[in-house]
Specification:
By secondary structure, the chain is mainly alpha-helical. It has one domain. The chain is built from 13 helices and seven strands. Strands 4-3-7 form a three-stranded antiparallel beta sheet. Strands 1-2 form a two-stranded parallel ribbon. The protein is globular.
Length: 347
């Protein structure tokens, strides 16, 4: 699929030319979603493919961004049929976009109970160029949730949400001297637990859904073998918890709202407004120290937030939740900062 004779720059240029032609001839909703009476809105498959390209460098980070970008560009270029404007090319690009939508974005945005819906999407082989190798990392299923994870994360952050500055109501309830807002607190996985779940006793499920998701993650983040092996063992560790794009200062990030005008997004604005610095620091004085969030997971989170916003996919998923079940609200530190879409980005 990847033409070793082409530079990444040339491959990206070819991919963008293909998407220009695709934009003019093919703009359909994912076929498995149409029967659920979901409005298309601004969502377009060509926008999703373009967004995957645009945010690939963020997902891979400074050292691996070119690898992430090459993965997306190569997958798009591999969809080319006899003619760039042919139905064959358009259908292949549609299948690729639907695979990234259903097996990647949907998995990270939606509650795990919604996985059964996106299972209806047939995966594109262009999205999973290393699936055989990736299957070798699926040897240990995710166990029961680690009950100490939230305790450690709140202790690390001094019982405050690092984004809003809201304090834990449970922790500060009996403190009459508080001059800050308190609320019920929730801990949130940065790397979604649902993305790491698979059933070793159900090979069909593992092959058709989890392995596809894992291979997309592996290539879009440009992960090493060691990092792939660490996903399951550390999924409930503090490194996978809290929310935010890496700045030049270690453990310091800038938060951005992708949907500042969207309803119910951040009744309480982040400290400092819509764009501000968030500093992750271990305030616990624990020995050993409580690990800080994994920067690679933060970059992935930020990239997904940008893709959902740019492509309109986030709005489609919001509507699906509104029409077909109780919304799986995502908590960013406290119940006063509920967001229905992954709207936090890093810049």
């Amino acid at each position: 699929m990847d033409d070793a004779g082409l530079t990444t720059e040339n491959m990206v240029e070819d991919a963008r030319k293909m998407l220009e032609d695709f934009k003019e001839c093919h703009r359909s909703m994912p076929t498995w979603l149409t029967k659920y009476n979901i409005m298309q809105g601004k969502f377009k498959l060509d926008l999703l493919l373009t967004a995957m390209l645009d945010f690939a460098p963020m997902s891979g980070g400074p050292e691996r961004g070119q690898g992430s970008l090459r993965y997306v560009a190569a997958a798009i270029c591999a969809c080319s049929g006899p003619r760039r404007e042919s139905d064959e090319t358009a259908n292949a690009l549609s299948a690729l976009a639907m695979t990234w939508f259903a097996r990647f974005l949907w998995t990270f945005r939606m509650h795990s109970s919604y996985k059964k819906y996106s299972n209806e999407a047939n995966p594109s082989g262009q999205a999973t160029p290393t699936s055989v190798e990736t299957s070798g990392f699926m040897f240990d299923a995710v166990g029961h949730r680690n009950s100490t994870m939230a305790t450690k994360v709140f202790k690390r952050q001094r019982q405050f949400c690092p984004i809003t500055g809201v304090g834990s109501r449970v922790h500060f309830d009996n403190n009459d001297d508080t001059d800050f807002l308190c609320a019920d607190m929730e801990n949130s996985h940065i790397f979604k637990r649902a993305a790491a779940e698979f059933n070793l006793d159900n090979p069909i499920d593992s092959c058709r859904y989890a392995m596809t998701t894992w291979d997309i993650i592996r290539n879009y983040m440009a992960l090493t073998d060691e990092e792939m092996e660490a996903i399951v063992p550390t999924i409930d560790d503090p490194i996978s918890s809290s929310p935010s794009t890496v700045t030049e200062i270690p453990n310091e990030y800038t938060i951005q709202l992708h949907h500042p005008k969207f309803r119910h997004v951040f009744p309480v604005l982040p400290v400092g407004g819509r764009e501000h610095r968030v500093v992750f620091k271990d305030y616990s004085n624990s020995d050993p120290p409580i690990p800080l969030p994994n920067t690679a997971y933060l970059r992935l989170h930020a990239a997904i937030a940008g893709i959902l916003s740019m492509s309109g996919a986030g709005e489609v998923m919001d509507e699906f939740e509104d029409k077909h079940g109780k919304p799986a609200l995502i908590y960013w530190g406290s119940q006063t900062t509920i967001s229905k879409t992954l709207c936090l980005g890093l810049t």
